[in-house]
Amino acid sequence: MRSSNAQHPGAVLKSLIEEFGISRKELAERLGWEYQKVANLVNGNTSVTAKIAIQLAEAFGTTPMIWLTAQKSWELSEAMKKLRKNRKRIKPFKRLTKG
Q: Whose CA is closest to 48, among 9, 17, 6, 21?
């Protein structure tokens, strides 16, 4: 299994904020969030939950699944980096053939 260098969803959000020409403050106001919640997400200090994914999807015309997939891809990428040495010691099982 190869590791990937997935982006934290906050990096994606930062790009969208720039693309839409809005401020973090404006996004927070539209979503009914505290400014710090947006800042934490953009800075990679907060995970995208199902609720956050739904809200971001509504705001940017995407789907919640895009946000949740980005979060899980990033988490998997980070876990693979941390467990790289351990994974080399794991011996895969071999399938038994029927017959």
A: 9
Do 30 and 20 touch, CB atoms closer than 8 A? no
Task: Examine the pLDDT at 43 and tell me if it is beyond 70.
Answer: yes
Q: What's the DSSP call for residue 49?
A: P
Residue 94 dihedral angles phi and psi, to the nearest 5°? -105, 140
Judge whether 6 and 70 are in contact, CB under 8 Å. Answer: yes
In eight-state DSSP terms, residue 83 is T
Query: What pLDDT score does 10 carry?
Result: 98
Distance CA 53, CA 47 (A): 10
Q: Which domains does the chain have, with CATH numbers?
A: 9-88 (1.10.260.40)
